Each structure stands twice: as C-alpha cells, then as structure tokens.
Automatic annotation (TrEMBL):
Lineage of the organism: Eukaryota, Metazoa, Ecdysozoa, Arthropoda, Crustacea
Name recorded for this polypeptide: Uncharacterized protein
Source organism of this protein record: Notodromas monacha
Source domain of life: Eukaryota
Region annotation Disordered: where it falls in the sequence: 1-22
Any Pfam family hit: DUF4551
InterPro entries per UniProt: DUF4551
C-alpha cells in the first residue's frame, strides 16, 4: 500500500475530565478538516477519540484493489491506521494494524511524499 501524504497534527482541547484531547491541539500545522473531525467525534467513543494522533487527505494505491489510486482520509491512532471515504466520511476501516508493520519507507519527490508500508502476513 502506498500513501501520498503530508502530516496534519490535530489541534487539542481540554475535556471535562481535564485530559487534553488529541483533536483540536493548539499547534496545528495545517487547517483542520471539519468534516473529518465531526465524523470522528460522532463515530468514536471518547476513550478512542483521544488516541487519534493525526489525519490527512491522501491518495491511496492499494495493491489488493488492483492498484488504482483512490482518494481517502487516513487516520492514525495508537493502534492502527484507518481509512474512510473522501470527501464524505461514512465508516472507519482498519487498514493497517500497527503490530503487523515490518517496515516503513518515506520517499520525498519534490512536494510529494510517498510512504510505503510493508505488512507481515503472519502475526
């Protein structure tokens, strides 16, 4: 699987429990995508929402899907890399379980970043 992406750090906010939420961090590098944030807040329970580390609109080229590039939102959490539809997120799909990653390579071609993830078939 190849993911073409930049990195978006999510802004943070104080929750009622006093914890800092990963969503709405004050040091956001890029403008937030309100559709994705609203979708994540609506879909995930609070204990999973604080585990979201970053998200980005990406072009994914999955070898299992015939290699056709598809525009998706990629969400990175403590436990895995999830994808959802772009431009209208509908459901989260666990694309990569972080325990299955063997290696990650980043190739920068001018302003395009290509991340190649090698996944183990056996856990």
């Amino acid at each position: 699987m190849s993911v073409n992406s930049g990195v978006r750090k999510l802004p943070s906010e104080n929750t009622s429990s006093g914890r800092r939420s990963v969503l709405n961090r004050s040091y956001s590098i890029k403008p937030v995508i309100s559709k994705v944030e609203t979708f994540l807040k609506r879909t995930l329970p609070p204990e999973d929402l604080i585990k979201v580390r970053t998200y980005e609109s990406c072009v994914i080229k999955d070898s299992d899907d015939g290699g056709n590039p598809v525009s998706k939102y990629v969400i990175v959490t403590n436990s895995g890399i999830f994808t959802t539809d772009n431009p209208h997120p509908k459901s989260l799909v666990l694309t990569v379980d972080l325990t299955a990653i063997v290696s990650v390579d980043l190739v920068s071609i001018k302003t395009v970043h290509i991340i190649t993830i090698v996944i183990s078939d056996v856990l």
